[in-house]
Amino acid sequence: MAKQHVSTVINGDPIEFLCDANKSLLDVLRNDLGMTGTKEGCGTGDCGSCSVTLDGRLVCSCLVLGVEAEGKSVQTIEGMANGEHLHVLQRKFLEHAALQCGICTPGFLVAARSLLERNPDPTEEEVRFWLAGNLCRCTGYNKIIEAVLDAAREMRGA
Amino acid sequence: MSEMRFEQPKTAEAASALLAGTQGLAKVLSGGTDLMIHMRNGNIKPELVLDVKGIAEMNAITVEKNGGYRFGGAVSCMQLLENKAFAETWPGIIDGANLVGSIQVRGRATVAGNLCNASPAADTVPAMIAAGAIASVVGPAGRREVPVEQIPTSPGKTTLAKGELIVSFLLPKRAPHSGDAYLRFTPRTEMDIAVVGVGLSLTLDDKGVCTAARVSLGAVAERALLVPEAAAALIGTKVDEAALAKLAAAASAAARPIDDKRGTKEFRIKIAGVLARRAAEKALARAKGNK
Asked: Which residue of B lies nearest to A5 if distances are taken between CA atoms?
């Protein structure tokens, strides 16, 4: 069967690609579009390292078909920094040493940005619940939670 | 190379015709949070995958003329959680929807998918059964209305025939002084599978006497169970200590679980009673707050 043609928008840029109908959005991003910032951890929706937003909705890209991106807007980690200028969350992750090996980091950043867009002033508990779908085996989470709360404070201008 | 065909029908009838007209395996994709995993594992190789999110009825949350809610089979758990009026009317369904996977998974996963995946431990199912939800099923023979408890039969199996799909769910109009709740036992608080789940819905009269109740148990049988004996323990009472004790005993008596790595048979039977009691207390508090 011929590959399907998909027109989508990724990080604000119109993108077209061809893909097999059964290919995940994660595989399209990484293998066909060269956007390897989105990581594959479990491939079963448990670890959150492949988190992206699809029309503003936080999802695991391993559980989305590439063809489902047709007509939609996708945001990945590659769209987070503005050129050389890091997003506040990225800067706070560095300041708080909220990463070690870094594989989970893009997923955490995308998920945390999605939280702060909806709730600019989350409690620690709200941050922990929102990020429950993102697994990190290095940091023990505390530094990540602190970084997100600190970023939220700075973004609110508090 | 992939042999899989991908279609995005615009009507339920077109979806049904595509499902019915496929010789090999045809699967409905709404959230895909179970389907994608089965495909990736190689457990299934669908000939056709049908994305139903473009069907208007399947994506909508509406209030019917009689005042009852209807929500579509492709509505994600997050869409339900974010609908404040729905969440206030059916907090027990929201309890369940809020326990499905992570935020990422809830952003895609649907109640219809949870039901049709037919895990006995599905978190959204007991509260839907307790609510008296009816599934609107469209198939080659037209539309039929099926109580939710009659959809799953055993793990991975349902009563849906070839070519049938759940288009939406209809909930009854909520009477005054009603409340519902879903509670589950899991070793962890998030990202876990129910060892036991209890959905319970009740309605009180002006004097605080329970006039109607429905109780459903999850993860204690091959499918989620509707337990009329447990509901009967509450009806006609003020949901007092004696009624709660009877409810717990009836729930434990109805549980017929297996032993597995998540819990023993004995433990699950006991916990079914404990959770039924707590769910009744929670539903009661909600009913009293609902003037």
From this structure: B6
Q: Is the dihedral of CA A95, A98, A103, A104 positive or negative?
A: negative
Measuring CA to CA, how many Å separate A72 from each of A7, A13, A67, A79, B123? 8, 12, 10, 15, 29
| Smallest CA–CA distance from A71 into chain B, residue | B54
Length of chain A: 158
CATH code of the domain occupying A4-79:
3.10.20.30
Assigned CATH class of B178-289: alpha beta
**Amino acid A1: pLDDT:** 57
Mean pLDDT of B104-120: 97
| Residues of chain B positioned with their CB less than 8 A from the CB of A109 | none
Contacts A43 to B, Cβ<8 Å? 40
Taking residues A29-35, what's their average pLDDT?
A: 97
**Per-residue pLDDT at A108 exceeds 60:** yes
Every domain of chain A with CATH number 1.10.150.120 lies at 88-156
Over the stretch A128-144, which tens digit does the pLDDT of each residue have? 999 999 999 999 999 99
For chain B, give every domain's residue range.
Answer: 178-289
ipTM above 0.85, yes or no: yes
Q: Record the pTM.
A: 0.95
Residue of B nearest to A60 (CA): B104
Helical packing angle, A142-156 and A105-118, nearest 10°: 40
Architecture of domain A88-156: Orthogonal Bundle (1.10)
Contacts of B104 in chain A (CB under 8 A): 45, 48, 51, 58-60, 63, 111, 133
- Output the pLDDT for position A158: 74
**A133–B105 CB contact, under 8 Å:** yes
